[in-house]
């Protein structure tokens, strides 16, 4: 469905003359070449190829976290600029990840930069489940009810710091109510299985 909608929108933009083709893609400006591209895209299966990361999911999360709130290029990579061109640093992975510099015409630099601007209503971070945008407030309200949470009590109802008697269903640290002990988890250092607390 996504493939069909995407290609349909692409075809409409092409028919309206809203698409631009530069560099190696110049040939796609002709109707024949563009129709051929759409034909190949229709026959291909749009399935994401994802393989297990070599260094584990933690490294993947660390890598992706660098880009969630960043722009297309950081300021430290910009070396110089004048009325005609912009010089910036890049890492050439084809040459052993060596740092090199590249000079682009200002209009070309702006064009490449704009390619990284997300379309309207397309966000980098999406929330699912309870934090999804649709009916989020209602779901969170229901979740709080299931968790038997209560509204914050008045400050005067909180036990004093010097009071050694703590209500059995109150957290000894944050003093919030509805603390229910289920079981005690063993320390990661000991690698012992969790044991349920003795009800006696």
What does this structure look like?
With 200 residues, this protein is α+β, with helices and mostly antiparallel strands. The protein has a three-stranded antiparallel beta sheet with strand order 1-2-3. Strand 2 (85-92) and strand 3 (98-105) form a beta hairpin. It has helices at residues 2-15, 31-43, 57-65, 106-114, 136-146; strands at 78-81, 85-92, 98-105. Residues 152-156 have low confidence and may be disordered. It is 28% helix and 10% strand.
Which of globular, elongated, flat, extended, rod-shaped describes the shape?
Answer: extended
- Total number of strands: 3
Arithmetic mean of pLDDT: 80
| Helix-strand pattern | HHHEEEHH
Whole-angstrom Rg: 28 Å
State the helicity in percent bands.
25-40%
Query: Number of helical runs?
Result: 5
Largest sheet: 3 strands, antiparallel
Low-confidence stretches: 152-156
Lateral arrangement of strands in the main beta sheet: 1-2-3
Span from first to last CA? 59 Å
User: Which strand-content bin applies to the residues?
Assistant: 5-15%
By secondary-structure content and strand pairing, the structural class works out as alpha+beta
Ordered list of secondary-structure elements with their pairings:
Elements lengths: L1 H14 L15 H13 L13 H9 L12 E4 L3 E8 L5 E8 H9 L21 H11 L54
Antiparallel strand pairs: 1-2, 2-3
Provide tags for this entry.
5 helices, 3-stranded antiparallel sheet, alpha+beta
Kindly summarize this structure in a few lines:
The chain has 200 residues and is α+β, with helices and mostly antiparallel strands. The protein has helices at residues 2-15, 31-43, 57-65, 106-114, 136-146; strands at 78-81, 85-92, 98-105.
């Amino acid at each position: 469905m996504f493939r069909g909608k995407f290609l349909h929108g692409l075809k409409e933009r092409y028919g309206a003359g809203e698409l631009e083709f530069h560099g190696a893609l110049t040939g796609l400006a002709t109707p024949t070449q563009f129709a051929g591209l759409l034909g190949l895209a229709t026959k291909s299966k749009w399935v994401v190829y994802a393989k297990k990361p070599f260094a584990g999911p933690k490294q993947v999360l660390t890598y992706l976290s660098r880009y969630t709130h960043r722009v297309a290029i950081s300021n430290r990579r910009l070396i110089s600029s004048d009325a005609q061109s912009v010089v910036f640093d890049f890492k050439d992975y084809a040459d052993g990840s060596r740092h090199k510099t590249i000079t682009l015409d200002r209009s070309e630099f702006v064009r490449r930069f704009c390619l990284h601007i997300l379309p309207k209503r397309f966000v980098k971070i999406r929330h699912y489940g309870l934090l999804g945008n649709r009916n989020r407030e209602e779901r969170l309200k229901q979740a709080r009810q299931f968790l038997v949470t209560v509204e914050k009590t008045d400050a005067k109802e909180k036990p004093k710091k010097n009071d050694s008697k703590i209500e059995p269903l109150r957290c000894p640290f944050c003093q919030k109510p509805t603390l229910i002990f289920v079981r005690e988890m063993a320390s990661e250092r000991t690698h012992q299985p969790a044991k349920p607390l003795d009800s006696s």
